[in-house]
């Protein structure tokens, strides 16, 4: 037993608690929702996309940089959203009577985690596809070919749509954090 002032920790009790499938599922959900939420906060505040607003570049370069950031992040963030959602749903399913009050919250966390992929495919695709196609045209030394809005305007609009994904993942993260603290 380790005595840390008012906090006394019995290592076997801590290991038993961490070994619980319920706690492991909540912890996994929290870990992956942390990656999604905090990673996207970092990217949205100090990554490539916000820097495009302050650096003077031609639209072709902006599209290429945006596409690089999108292509780099999409598989990682999509995976983290799905694993987080599955973990929260698993935790809700595994909740013992002692944790019954957390079940509806864990379901909400799972739904919020799963929000990003369909939002991206159904709502953001109409913004993503023209930007990715413009990047492909630039790589083939063709004209940008964006109709209507400029690349900067499309990237700004993408950033606004992206806030919905960040917000939903923030809700999942807060619920996961609360669940792990209360469990």
Automatic annotation (TrEMBL):
InterPro entries: Anthrone_oxy (IPR013901). Keywords: Membrane, Transmembrane, Transmembrane helix. Pfam families: Anthrone_oxy. This is DUF1772-domain-containing protein. The chain crosses the membrane at residues 76-99, 105-125, 163-182. It comes from Pterulicium gracile.
């Amino acid at each position: 037993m380790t005595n840390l002032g008012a906090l006394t920790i019995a290592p076997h009790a801590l290991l038993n608690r961490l070994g619980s499938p319920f706690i492991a599922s909540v912890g996994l959900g929290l870990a992956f929702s942390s990656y999604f939420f905090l990673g996207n906060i970092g990217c949205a505040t100090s990554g490539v996309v916000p820097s495009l607003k302050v650096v003077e570049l031609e639209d072709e370069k902006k599209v290429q940089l945006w596409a690089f950031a999108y292509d780099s992040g999409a598989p990682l963030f999509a995976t983290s959203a799905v694993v987080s959602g599955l973990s929260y749903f698993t935790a809700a399913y595994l909740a013992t009577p002692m944790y019954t009050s957390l079940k509806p919250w864990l379901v909400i966390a799972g739904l919020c985690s799963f929000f990003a992929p369909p939002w991206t495919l159904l709502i953001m695709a109409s913004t993503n596809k023209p930007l990715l196609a413009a990047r492909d045209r630039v790589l083939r030394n063709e004209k940008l070919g964006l109709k209507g809005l400029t690349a900067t305007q499309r990237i700004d609009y993408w950033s606004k749509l992206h806030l919905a994904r960040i917000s939903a993942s923030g809700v999942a993260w807060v619920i996961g954090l609360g669940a792990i603290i209360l469990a």
